[in-house]
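Reader question, answered in our methods column.
A reader sent in the components of a multi-part assembly and asked whether the whole thing could be modeled at once rather than chain by chain. We filled in our standard form and ran it. Here is what they sent:
COMPLEX SIZE: two components
ENTRIES:
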Amino acid sequence: MTGESLLAAEDLQKTFGKTTALNGASLSVEAGEIVAIMGPSGSGKSTLLHCLAGIVLPDAGHVRYQSRELTTLPDVERSALRRSQFGFVFQFGQLVPELTCLENVALPLRLERVKRREAEHRAAEWLDRLEVGDVAGKRPGEISGGQGQRVAVARALVAGPRVVFADEPTGALDSLNGERVMRLLTEAARQARAAVVLVTHEPRVAAYSDREVVVRDGRTRNLERAA
Amino acid sequence: MSDLLLGARMAFAGGRDGWFRAVLTALGVGIGVALLLLAAAVPGALQARQARGDAHAAFGQAIPASTDTLLVAHARTEFREQPVRGSLLQAEGPQAPTPPGVTALPRAGEVVVSPALKELLDSPDGHLFAPRLGGATIIATIGEEGLNGPRELAFYLGSDALSDEWAVRIDAFGGGSSNGPGIGGPLIVLVVIIFVVLLLPIVVFLGTAVRFGGERRDRRLAALRLVGADARMIRRIAVGEAVAGALLGVAVGAVLFAIGRQVAPLVTLWDISVSASDIRPSLPLVLAIVVAMPALAVVVGLITLRGVVVEPLGVSRRTTVRRRLWWRLVVPGIGLALLYPLIDGIRTAGTTINEYQIAAGAVLLLIGAVTLLPWLIDLVVRPIRGGPVPWQLAVRRLQLDSATSARMINGIAVAVAGTIGLQMLFAVVQEESTMATGQDPSRAQAQVSIYGLADPGETLARLRASPGVNGGSGTLFTSASVASTSADDSASVASLIIGDCTALAEFATIGPCGDGDVFVAQAPEQPSLDDFVPGAHVAVGDGEMPWTLPIDTRQVPTRKNPNGWHQGGILVTTGAIDLAGAGPLHVSLYVTFNPEASDPLEHLRNVAASITPLSQVYPLQSTIQLRKFVNIQRGLYIGAVVTLLLISMSLFVGVLEQLRERRRLLAMLVAVGTPRSTLTWSVLWQAVLPVLLGLALAVLFGLGLGAVLLRMLGETVTISWPVVGLSTGLAAAVVLLLAVLTLPALRRLMRPDNLRTE
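And here is the structure of the entire assembly that came back:
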């Protein structure tokens, strides 16, 4: 862990009732870097992602984003940070079902008080880049799972985040669609110079990252890649 | 069959959540069923009460005294505005009949009282009533079969001083109808509409209660599709689930009804208390309710299934179809068609009122508000674009599914529409039920009337000395007749009123007056007193005592007495006549009370009763409201509160359920940085928009119903905007309060923890 890291977690502890989710996990993410967090089900990888993003506060340990301590920030400031600096892609159920795809993608901009016309214009551009411009006027219930995840990626990137958090983004997709989503996500993130923290248990998905971290029993371990 | 049973098992499966849902449905259905059963028992309970009233009524018969006859004199009184049914009994032989509920006739100095009167006598206030029983010993209480209801105040007081002059002779109780004047046309319409307005929201609520947990059920059905159930099996399983929940609800309803039956006797409504044994809904109505509930659950369940596609990989809603208007107008149209022929028809005297036609018409008209609401919400929200994020989220949700929101406020809309219609009717009936009596309480607050006394002077003195009485003008009444000068040779008869100058001045403008003066006061529109000229020889009272009108008798104009009418006659000061030989006299005393005195009216009644139990004491009031109307109003308020609570509960559960279904989405939106206030406002907007539209529709239908009902009674249609504002404002306040009450749950559901799936 270095002082220049964009995002760093140190010695995180987190329990839910009697279940220990994190037990001394540490991780750092550099600007523009794509990091895959791997591990079996229940190992604590999603909890680590939630702590890194300031969604959940750890019981102990530190999370720093651009040298700001997230664990001591009030909820309102953490929310504002997530809105303006971070983007999110989840496995499922992330699009607001009653909004059209275009409105879903424009939502982060609208929350940042960008005018509707401008927000929807930028959202349409991102939908085109993610190759789902044709579903802009449809609601999430009317499109396929793969299209839905690409819309979610567009929404995660539309506000120009510094970090994109992706929690099993291909978990509900077939391999072909999964590959397509990962290719578009990583390409778009690299073009936007956004770091990506990717939680997955699939090596095939982790292969899109620059570096892999394994979480087991709540602890992290850097994985050396074969050349 | 196995599918139905599987569905029944699934109704209670699913751990804590499953039981919570089942209990909620059962409670909702149970409360509705219990209220419907209680309502269904009302006609029977009233009939039973009427039958008891008939059974203990004593109708005088033209029969001679014998060993099986009984003299009965009514000694009705009141205690703090509550009616007390009292009778004096005197057996004329050993086989004299006993009233229902009484095993042995009380003898002189004995009394049989109702349990409620015994309770009153044993209470600290008992001393305010006990003197009316003349110190008689309570020998028994009246059994249930001899009372109109368990809270009725009644007594049978034994006597040995009755004669057939003041009492009726009977050889059996009952044998006639004790019916008082029936309730008039406007009141019947009012009662019918009250039933409709109170019960319809309950039925609408039942429609909502049977689909509590609907979205979760759809997901369970999708899981069954995954393991091979086809669409028809799914429908059968859904039917089984719905029937199981409804049957549990019916069982809960039966328990609640049994509890309500035990509680009902403790309540007195419309001066009526009902025994638990009288609360027996008729079998056809019970069967109708018991069968209708599961049927309603099945129909509602299948209709909701039509709106979704249950596939093995999940549930999707059918694309919103354009809602058609025509059939939504047909329902209220039929309602209007049923009511229209009754316009101007009810006021006509002797018209038979078809309560069922009025009820059906009103129900269908009010249901119009329910059928039109989803269409109206669609119409209004469909073109809405833009706006801030919370507004956009709310509007888009309504555009996607207006039916759910509409369903939640159906009950409120129907209740408000009904209340407005009812209040318009109420205003008219109230006007008719509040009568100016013409009485002048500034001159006297009560009148005591006692017939047939030998020593009126002492009577007046005792009444004037009653605690709390600070003034009184007493007069003695008898009659005077004089041979007529007209051709038909009949006698002219007039009232002879004897008192001091002050007392006589209550009846006429007598001018200068001294003891020994006599006046002839001719009242307007009363038989002429022309034969009562100075010097005329008259016969006074039943004793036909001869007396001559003094030569200086003056003609004076009458004035309204404190009762509010002109009492004409011969006004005689006490020094002008010696009444010995005039026969029994009637004592009348107008009294004024000390405003600081406590219960002066009850003390006065006690003193009057100690003189004779047959005395009458009337409070004088400038206006009176028909007691039935006051009671109906009280019943309405109680019913309205119950209905409002029920609707509120349904609304609260509905909103909570909607939020629970969306907890992952809410948590996700918070996780991506959406301010909680944005989501809170979106939930509030989502509640407020349909409520506003629902209330607008409710006002429209309420005014429509009110207008039709008023036309039915031949009244001018007038709208009381404060009432409209109050009804809608109250409903809006309830909805907003409930929305605020759901905020803690909303905050819990917005916690990012809800993102966890493991």
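What stands out: The CA atoms of residues 24 and 212 of chain B lie 7 Å apart. The longest strand of chain B covers residues 469-483.
Send us your own complexes using the same form.
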